[in-house]
Amino acid sequence: MGAVSDDSTLSHLDADGRARMVDVSGKTASVRRAVASGRYRTRADVIALLRDDALPKADVLTTARLAGIGGAKRTSELIPLCHPLPLDAVTVDLELEADAVVITATATTTGRTGVEMEALTAVAVAGLTLHDMVKAVDPAGVLGEIRLLEKTGGVRGPWSRDRAAEAAAAPGSDSAPRSTAAESAHADPDRPTVRPRTGIVLVSSTRAAVGERPDETGPVIAEWLAGHGIAVDGVVVVADAGVADALQAALASTPAVVITTGGTGPSPSDRTPEAVAAVL
């Protein structure tokens, strides 16, 4: 994995904003460990088949474990800016729940940079392998909740998701929520009420807006939102120059989510970043 800098800047960008592999040659090698997890959700009858090793593709859990280990070993080939690491150990554990498989991967190395990406990749590849072997009986299975749980080693020392969440929730913490939505509405009765679980997709594309080419991205985003329980008001396609006004109009309808796409290139007409920054 690439190194993490001591400040809040992105260490994988150089002074000109270009992607780079971080130089870790000046760092001291230490033992580093990372634990990641994910969950593959499927039907209860599929879990029973997994438990009994009765799926058409046999020995599913063992195959998924081996795939996860293999994925960890090839992380630097999959993630462009990761350093190749000499892995000391990788374990992948699969725990069967009523309607899901919990995947936990632990990776250890002795090196100059962290091993978080190797643990995360192990979880992802194990989960994808589960889906490949389960899809014949449940093509609707969902792999998600892939996240780092904890890490140790390096100059930053140990980090734990649980401890970070506790610190963020502590009274007086800068990360602690200032108030609930209900409290905010009570404090400011003139503030518009956000419509829960609603969304708008805003596409910035001059060529699509004038009909020179079809917009293919907006419908894909809308379908993804709908699949996650978000009622999409619509896909709005505007010319690059009109994205700021379109964003203001979208926000005025108080959806819970607004997703923008397009208008982020180097051309002077690409204005989406500026439009978004103005309303944050």
Kindly, what is the distance between the CA atoms of the first and last residues, rounded to a whole number of angstroms?
Answer: 31 Å
Query: Would you count the extended β strands for me?
Result: 8
Which CATH class of the largest domain applies here? Alpha Beta
CATH architecture of the largest domain: 2-Layer Sandwich
For the biggest sheet, the summary is: 5 strands, antiparallel
What general form does the structure show?
Answer: globular
Low-pLDDT residue spans: 1-8, 176-189
User: Under CATH, the topology of the largest domain is which?
Assistant: Alpha-Beta Plaits
Task: Give the proportion of residues in helices.
Answer: 25-40%
Assign the CATH superfamily of the largest domain. Molybdopterin cofactor biosynthesis C (MoaC) domain
As laid out across the biggest beta sheet, the strand order is: 2-3-1-4-5
Please state roughly what percent of the residues sit in beta strands, choosing from under 5%, 5-15%, 15-25%, 25-35%, 35-45% or over 45%: 25-35%
Q: In the residues, how many domains can be counted?
A: 2
Write down the Rg: 23 Å
Tally of separate helices: 10
Report on the architecture of this protein.
- The protein is an alpha/beta fold and 280 residues long.
- It folds into two domains: 30-165, Alpha-Beta Plaits; 195-279, MoaB/Mog-like domain (Molybdenum Cofactor Biosythetic Enzyme, Chain A, 3-Layer(aba) Sandwich).
- It is built from ten helices and eight strands.
- The chain has helices at residues 44-51, 60-73, 75-78, 116-134, 161-169, 181-187, 206-209, 217-227, 243-252, 272-279, and strands at residues 30-41, 87-96, 100-111, 142-152, 159-160, 195-204, 231-238, 255-261.
- The protein has a five-stranded antiparallel sheet. A three-stranded parallel sheet has the order 7-6-8, with helices on both faces.
- The longest helix is centred in the middle third of the chain and has 19 residues, at 116-134.
